[in-house]
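Page 37, continued from 36.
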């Protein structure tokens, strides 16, 4: 099977295996060429006392350059990842792990918490790092290692690790082009290691791509830079400092309906036209049409992320780690509408007096517009004025849907009713992680540590009268006519943990026993929505975590783990008029995670099986006092309640084999995730499947490598059907619609991917080495599918029930990588 002189090194990540590989290599005659075929056992979680997977550097480099880090996770069992774009997609990005969504999964970069993963006002992880610098991704499908810093990790934890400065001076560069105008350039320079133990690197990347539907009027742009300095302090001690800068602007994709019956309240539906989200590409001058122009909606963000990682060895057996960090973000989202939403008192900013109520708002539309008469003439029509507590049917149909109206002749245009709405956000996030670890001669490894984080945030919503809607949605700062949100948050999170890892039975049995305690507090004010300040403080209590690993023999190992987890109360409980009284007594969400598994590793082969159970409790559900009202208005009356939860049960199977020229990898996951209690206000009944969580997922990949530097990879990803709405919904809103809306399911789909590369031998143009040419084709057969459900946009109301994002089409990328 293997050529003469071949060393097969199975690096499971343990010191003993590495030593065995070195011994085997030394035994081979130096006269013979040596090919090392390496199977990394950590891909299957080897040596971990819980469900765990690793995406290694080689796998990362096989993906398209500039790929969103979250999309790397599509190959991990138990995870569903999708977006409307082959590379990224901030608003349309969907992530599900064992039935829980990305706001219930912990994410970190180099162990530093990512924070919220909301696209607007939060931070997607691709803004804090460049894919070209990722060295590995550690994925725990259960609850993560003890001490992982997160306020939202109810089920699963993901840590992206970035590479350190090289000891050798030189640089790396990437140039990529692709469909839809994709352009990417990346360059990194390493100083090499100086005599004083200091090494450093700096990098910069630029990316640009257009949206794919229609005439591709949307744009996504990103500029990113990193600087890292590493100081080797000797004897295993070091300190590294990293600063990252990111600036992005994005016109994303809109949600669509599944069925044509929903068409009157959606711009597009998958059943009738699966190739568009209904947004338009050209400016008409009619605000009722141009509100759907892709360029009038999007987000922009500028962020600076910095952290220090100090590791100090204390003798031979102890280590102190301290990681302070700071993250600043500012940005906004924008939206264009054919009306004005203004306060009834005419003031731009109406602070609420003590004991008073917020000033109500009205929507005004169709001023200076004409109605078409029976003979085809134009009859002046009065403007329409709607109070903000009008029914959802009126709000959805009266202003935006202008089918029965015609524009004035151009010569008669006056001051049109059109508004550009800007939602601004700003955040300062700072914190510190610290841990003291020591190994005792008795076989105990002790860890104690803590995490503290303070976040100060602000969110505003400003309304500007558009300067000239016949030309664009542009506005002047002097045209600000209303501020309906001015929200300020200050939160503090703290965590303490302790663990004892015991090695017993001659290191065949490993027992981890630990506990975590978390506390979270927040203050919130919004002067135009209420007077004063709201406060909330919750604690987790003791969260026990226990895991055990038993090495049956050299080939087999068995693990079992259990943990209790905690999620802080979300902002929605505070905001607007929400939960003015109901916030008292709201409890934090918790989950109980249990998993057990067995792994077999023999030569170039490996198999793993995990069974798991997640009980997500105290789910905070919306209890909207007026389900037909506009819940985004300050006039809405919304409350929240701990009601119900989610039960998730499943099994995951993984297999991998590595040979001299061939690598095989496959996994399958079965997940039964359903709601456990009726939630009448949301239309949920016990037993209903969790939105967006497919029961069946599978991934398979085969890679062929030649000794001449060629590589060819083909893979297939299968996602089974998944619920898109909560339940059968009685129609009390849509005139002429069906009496009931049945539960919707997103259809199953299979995607085929193809990639290849060729590495040039020797130098290129006399200055470049390790030069590689690569291509990637995503969705080879151009399958049309739904990539995910906008569960945060979905309610039991038929107007907003079942909102989906289109999947990305066939996309080709070509990349050249080189070292200099």
């Amino acid at each position: 099977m293997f050529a003469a002189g071949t060393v097969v090194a199975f690096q499971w990540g343990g010191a003993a295996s590495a030593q065995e590989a070195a011994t085997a290599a030394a035994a081979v005659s130096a006269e013979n060429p040596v090919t090392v075929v390496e199977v990394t056992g950590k891909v299957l979680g080897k040596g971990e006392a819980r469900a765990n997977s690793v995406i290694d550097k080689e796998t990362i480099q096989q993906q398209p350059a500039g790929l969103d880090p979250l999309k790397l996770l599509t190959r991990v069992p138990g995870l569903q990842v999708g977006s409307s774009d082959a590379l990224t997609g901030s608003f349309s990005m969907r992530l599900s792990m064992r039935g829980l969504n990305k706001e219930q999964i912990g994410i970190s970069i180099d162990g530093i918490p990512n924070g919220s993963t909301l696209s607007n006002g939060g931070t997607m992880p691709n803004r804090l790092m460049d894919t070209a610098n990722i060295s590995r991704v550690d994925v725990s499908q259960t609850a993560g290692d003890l001490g992982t810093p997160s306020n939202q990790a109810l089920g699963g934890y993901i840590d992206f690790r970035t590479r350190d400065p090289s000891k050798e001076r030189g640089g790396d560069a990437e140039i990529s082009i692709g469909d839809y105008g994709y352009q990417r350039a990346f360059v990194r320079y390493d100083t090499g290691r100086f005599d004083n133990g200091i090494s450093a690197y700096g990098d910069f990347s630029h990316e640009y791509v257009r949206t794919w539907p229609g005439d591709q009027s949307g744009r996504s742009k990103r500029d990113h830079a990193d600087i890292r300095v590493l100081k080797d302090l000797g004897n295993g001690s070091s300190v590294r400092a990293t600063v990252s800068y990111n600036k992005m602007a994005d016109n994303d994709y809109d949600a669509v309906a599944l069925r044509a019956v929903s068409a009157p309240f959606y711009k597009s539906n998958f059943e009738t036209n699966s190739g568009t989200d209904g947004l338009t590409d050209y400016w008409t001058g009619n605000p009722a049409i141009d509100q759907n122009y892709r360029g009038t909606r999007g987000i922009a963000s500028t962020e600076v992320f910095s952290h220090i990682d100090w590791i100090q060895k204390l003798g031979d057996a102890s280590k102190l780690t301290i990681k302070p960090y700071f993250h600043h973000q500012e940005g906004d989202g924008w939206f264009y509408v054919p009306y004005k939403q203004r306060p009834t008192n005419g003031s731009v900013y109406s602070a609420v007096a003590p004991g008073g109520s917020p000033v109500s708002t009205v929507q005004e539309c169709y001023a200076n517009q004409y109605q078409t008469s029976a003979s085809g003439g134009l009859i002046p029509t009065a403007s329409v004025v709607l109070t903000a507590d009008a029914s959802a049917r009126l709000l959805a149909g009266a202003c935006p849907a202008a089918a029965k109206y015609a524009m004035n002749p151009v010569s008669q245009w006056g001051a049109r009713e059109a508004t550009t709405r800007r939602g601004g956000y700003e955040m300062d996030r700072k914190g510190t992680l610290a841990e003291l670890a020591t190994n005792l001669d008795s076989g105990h490894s002790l860890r104690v540590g803590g995490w503290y984080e303070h976040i100060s945030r602000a969110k505003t919503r400003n309304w500007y009268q558009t300067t000239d809607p016949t030309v664009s949605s542009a506005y002047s700062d002097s045209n600000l006519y209303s501020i309906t949100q001015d929200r300020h948050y200050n939160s503090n999170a703290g965590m303490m943990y302790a663990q004892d890892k015991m090695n017993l039975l001659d290191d065949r049995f490993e027992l981890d026993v630990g506990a975590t305690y978390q506390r979270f507090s927040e203050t919130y004010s919004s002067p135009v929505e209420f007077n004063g300040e709201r406060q909330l403080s919750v604690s987790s209590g003791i969260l026990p975590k226990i895991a055990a690993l038993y090495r049956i023999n050299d080939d087999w190992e068995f693990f079992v783990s259990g943990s209790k987890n905690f999620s802080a109360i979300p902002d929605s409980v505070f905001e607007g008029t929400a939960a003015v009284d109901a916030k008292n007594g709201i409890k934090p969400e918790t989950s109980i995670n249990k998993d057990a598994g067995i792994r077999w590793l023999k030569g170039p082969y490996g198999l793993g099986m995990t069974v798991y159970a997640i009980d997500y409790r105290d789910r905070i559900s919306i209890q909207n006092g007026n389900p037909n009202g506009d819940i985004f208005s300050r006039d809405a009356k919304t409350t929240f309640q701990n009601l119900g939860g989610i039960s998730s049960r499943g099994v995951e199977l993984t297999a991998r084999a590595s040979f001299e020229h061939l690598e095989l990898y496959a996994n399958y996951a079965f997940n039964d995730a359903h709601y456990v209690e009726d939630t009448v206000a949301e239309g949920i009944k016990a037993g209903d499947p969790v939105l967006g969580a497919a029961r069946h997922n599978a991934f398979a990949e085969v890679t062929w490598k030649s000794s001449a530097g060629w590589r060819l990879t083909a893979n297939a990803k299968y996602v089974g059907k998944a619920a898109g709405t909560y339940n059968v919904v009685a129609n009390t809103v849509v005139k002429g619609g069906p009496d009931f809306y049945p539960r919707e399911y997103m259809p199953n789909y299979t995607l085929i991917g193809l990639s290849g590369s060729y590495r040039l031998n020797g130098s290129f143009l006399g200055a470049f080495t390790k030069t590689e040419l690569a291509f990637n084709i995503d969705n080879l057969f151009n399958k049309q599918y739904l990539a995910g459900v906008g569960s945060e946009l979905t309610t039991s109301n038929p107007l907003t029930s079942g909102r989906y994002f289109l999947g990305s089409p066939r996309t080709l990328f070509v990349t050249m990588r080189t070292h200099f």
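The chain has two domains: 7-38, 43-168+175-339+433-819. Flag for discussion at group meeting. The mean pLDDT is 84.
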